[in-house]
Design goal:
This protein has eleven helices and twelve strands. The chain is an alpha+beta fold and 350 residues long. The chain has two domains: 208 residues, no CATH class; 126 residues, no CATH class. β4 and β5 form a beta hairpin. The structure holds iron/sulfur cluster (SF4) (2 copies). The site of one iron/sulfur cluster has 12 residues, from α8.
Amino acid sequence: MSFETFVTDKTGLQKFYEAIIEKNETYAPVEKFGNFDFKRITRLSECNPESPIEKTRSIKPLFFPRSAKVMKYVATSAGTEIAETDKDPLAGKRVIIGAKHCDARALQVLDKVYSWDYIDTDFRNRRQNTVIVSTRCDKAAIHCFCTSLDYDVETLDAMDVLIVNGIDGKIYIRAKTEKGNAFLKNFPTIHDSQLPENEAAPALKAQYEAFAATFRLQMNYREVNEKLSKVFDSPEFESLSSNCISCNTCAFVCPTCHCFKISDEKVKDTGVRYKSYDSCNNGYFTLMAGGHNPRPAKYRRWRQRALHKFVYYKERFGENLCVGCGKCTFACPVNISIFEVVNQVSDTAM
Ligand code: SF4
Ligand code: SF4
């Protein structure tokens, strides 16, 4: 289904963003120490909606926070009482601008696990109350491989509103979902510049083709899925993961990783329970109460990471647990690339 497309220029886009910020609780990439993270903003000058992908954290923490207080409790002579549960600060109606395509796509992947055997109502409510405005990249960064995975970047509908910097110098604003279509009706000034579909579609396609031609990394994900399912015992996992320092950074920045731990911090009679990110690369992740750890070696943990993303999630939910954003590789302190790992291990399949 195609929705309306509007054409504008840099000034028009700026006015569009300003109107969004004025009318809505808005989140956007905000720079700190050279990197960008999605924060609440009240003025366009506080953010850069076109922040470079290699320096921008994902939007996942706006739906699945890095560490969140679940509750506070107090031990009394009568037992333990819940003292306080916080109102969800991320549950209100809001808009994200400057989201990357891969980040928006990652939420569609996470929707599957969060609405599977247990419905995570916090995640679902945050999803339902958020409008995602996403700018398609103009150029792939060095570790990007989103165009090689099991979703079509050109026709992606993971964002509600799509912004495209056309190769003709014009800027295109297109609704991608019913929610996005309804949202754009709040901005009547852009409706003066509506474009017929027979002009909009070729302009968007031309930009996509120019963008797709900039990718250094390409792979056949079906072949990787098939071959990886046969290489559980490959010695390649050991050599490829030998430099890993198990810092978990790759999982913490990944827009699709969703492991978490529950921890209690107690001082005297008062405790706080947190839900925080965890990672299968963490040596203690599978440590059991009796002391047994089925993944004591890092190659086993890396094997789990690679196979979960490209075999197990696919078997259960029908798609890869990776959107090819390259964020794990940009952030890894020892330069381990998931693209190289899955491709090199696949090559060992008979
Ligand atoms: S595994 Fe790496 S490339 Fe894949 S989605 Fe996660 S951060 Fe992006
Ligand atoms: S970021 Fe790199 S070093 Fe850290 S756990 Fe991931 S692969 Fe290992």
